[in-house]
Amino acid sequence: MAKLLKVINRDQCIGCLSCMFACSKTWNKALTTNKARLSVRVYPDAEGAFSIRICYGCKHPDCADACPTDALIPREGGGVEFNQSECIHCGECIDACVPHALLWDEENKIPLVCFHCGMCASFCPNNVIKLVEVEA
Amino acid sequence: MKHNFYMLDIDLSSETSKTVDITDLFDKWIGGAGVATKLLIDSVPPSADPLSEDNVVIFAIGPLNNQFPVMTKTTAMFKSPLTGDLGESHAGGNFGLALYQAGFHALRIRGKAKHFSYIKIKNDQVEIIKSDSLKNMTATATRRIFMDIYGKEHMQSVLRIGPAGERLSPIACLCVDASRHFGRLGLGAVFGSKNLKALLISGDKYWTLPKTKYNKLYKNIFKEVTQSEIMKKYHDLGTAVNVIPLSKINGLPVRNYSQGFFESAENISGEAMANKHLAQKIACAGCPVGCIHLGDVREMFEAKHHMYKTKRVSYDHEPIYAMGSNLSISSSDTVLKLLHKSEREGWDVISIGVTLAWATEAFQKRLITEEETDGEILNFGDGETYLRILDKISEGVNEFYKDLEKGTAFCAKKYGGEDFAIVFNKNEAPGYLTGIMAFIGYATDTRHSHLGNGGYAMDQKPNIKELSTEDKVKALYEEGIWRILSTSLSACLFSRHIYNKPEIIPDMLKSLDICDLSDEELLKKARIIHGMKYKFKFECGFKLENIKLPEKLLHVMTATGKLKQEEFEKSLELFSQYVKDDVKLYEEVEGQQKH
Question: Is the ipTM of this complex over 0.90?
């Protein structure tokens, strides 16, 4: 069984960004929200409503299809694995992800690929995100 | 790794900006309120006109901001157009995080923009952009516009004033992101006087994770914040939970402080708001509590076709007092509608609410008549009239309405009724009729806020009546000093029961290699900062002995009985000694530095 992150209670989000802090710290050793592999966005025109963009765990990922090299490889169970040495920093993958769930590391010019580790979910105070088991 | 701290210094007049290393200021004055005060007094002569280009706006966060839960505030310092001395206000939202991610712990805005403009900051890139189209736009609409334009930046902060700030109302606030405010003491007018409508900030700088026990400390605090009972009040009903208990003890101001019991408290309580209006709760960036309560109020605007509109606005105890009990408004719908108007216009809601309460009493005592009010009959409890009055202030229909947004003290001086103008150093009082300590607290706090020392909470302690005046003043002073430490770290004061424990703050500072100071050493710095703040106030002409207890309060039954003028005066005298000692401490420290 593989594990994937899922947004299970989007409308319970309070926008504290604790998930983004946790992700940036865990995978980039960075005290920021800008290195997170997910984002919490505020809707324009509806104060206080949030949209959580997290890797959707696609079976046939658009980001991998768009990658001109083999830097992004479909991952067992959904989502992608990132082979940094193959990355040519073109950003095609980011544009291909329609909901902008794949984020871009401005500093290193690489995609911030979600590992579906569940660290973000463990810092969510309101049970918005959950790591669930899926068929491989 | 030892961190450096930087300030972004913007001069609107010359349209230039530069990055300044202010690590030495953080070493000496902790951060937040401490560093911001120092930057203010070094930038603004005490004689400066608050609404001239000589005034500056300083924003600062603390060294722990964004690194620990609930370390979310930003401190603003400026010369206040309301009091004419130290202007200090604190706000949450995303601003503290956006400032840090832009690479700064402080921001200074000087001079005056040539045109009506907004500032756009991305890291150290600053643009001053002419924006005539935003003139007279509500604070809420202004945010929508900027989210529309710059919505792709998922972490940014939007500060803006409403039309009240543009009109230089000294009770205008500066709005931050979703329903947060630098509310008190007129920062909105200072922005307006600089031709500034808004400020947008974002960036991609960060500190790296230290190889210390930081992670463990963060996890422990996160767990305490989210799982213990300490923060329950704030993420449950929010501060509005105070409404009924305060009324029950005769501590909730009603009809311009005529009494402390509100017969309709249950209609506008935290419980009523949650049952009837609460749409959702949201948080400041980096705070898992989520104390911001947003309430919806639905209004039919055309019966024939069942046409409805819905307003959404945040509520808390203070706004409910100011637009609710103190105006005798018994409908939660009306309270939210009044708050929504204030939010759009960009007034500090406590100040405008207290001014409406003063105006009502002045009208009833015939100090003002229908001639001034443009035919309006002011009655406590008449929400529809208050809604119209807010519109008339916005429109500036006559001199009286233009005066109302200059605040209670201004109006009482001009029209009479100073005895029932509930202000302390011209600042309209927050929502407590708990007893003498609340008012001594407002009088002695450098920003005349209830949050500066929590006097209202002291009034409610069971043993308060057993303490001597000396002991009470000492306790008030000591609480105030701890809170200066807290605001110099730019922590949210709602987290005081998490962080006001021995060794926690020193441990956090050490874990990020900021400094290795004990609680005692940090509190000594806070005392020196207290002295620094007071010195600036004195240089601006402030005198503690000039603060009077509004006479009306002497005739009202508070939660702890009748107030005594002698006790108020004696307390101020006792407090003066602490102030003198702290000013001396500050002068000694600054003297040493100069030699």
Answer: no
- Residue among B144, B206, B284 whose CB faces A31 most closely: B206
Please report, for chain A, how many H helices and E strands are present, in that order. Answer: 4, 9
Please tell me whether residues B145 and B253 are part of one structural domain: no
AA letter at B388: R
Mutating which of A33, A51, A126, A129 best tests the B interface, going by the most B Cβ atoms within 10 A?
A33
Query: What are the residue ranges spanned by the domains of chain A?
Result: 2-58+98-134
A34 in B contact zone (CB under 8 Å):
yes
Q: In sequence order, which residues have a C-beta less than 8 Å from that of residue B304 and are 6 or more positions away?
A: none
Query: SS3 of B468, please?
Result: coil
Residue at B150: amino acid letter: Y
Length of chain A: 136
Structural domain that includes position B99: 6-202
The pTM of the full predicted model, rounded to 2 decimals, is 0.95
Q: Quick check: A35 contacting B, CB < 8 Å?
A: yes
Per-residue pLDDT of chain B (595 residues), as tens digits, is: 689 999 999 999 999 999 999 999 999 999 999 999 999 999 999 999 999 999 999 999 999 999 999 999 999 999 999 999 999 999 999 999 999 999 999 999 999 999 999 999 999 999 999 999 999 999 999 998 888 777 666 679 999 999 999 999 999 999 999 889 999 999 999 999 999 999 999 999 999 999 989 999 999 999 999 998 888 888 899 999 999 999 999 999 999 999 999 999 999 999 999 999 999 999 999 999 999 999 999 999 999 999 999 899 999 999 999 999 999 999 999 999 999 999 999 999 999 999 999 999 999 999 999 999 999 999 999 999 999 999 999 999 999 999 999 999 999 999 999 999 999 999 999 999 999 999 999 999 999 999 999 999 999 999 998 999 999 999 999 999 999 999 999 999 999 999 998 999 999 999 999 999 999 999 999 999 999 999 999 999 999 999 999 999 999 999 999 999 999 999 999 999 999 999 999 999 987 655 4
Q: Which CATH number fits domain A2-58+98-134: 1.10.10, 3.30.70, 3.40.50, 1.10.760?
A: 3.30.70
Say if B44 falls within a structural domain: yes
CB B405 within 8 A of CB B389: no
Q: d(Cα B32, Cα B104) in Å, to the nearest integer?
A: 12
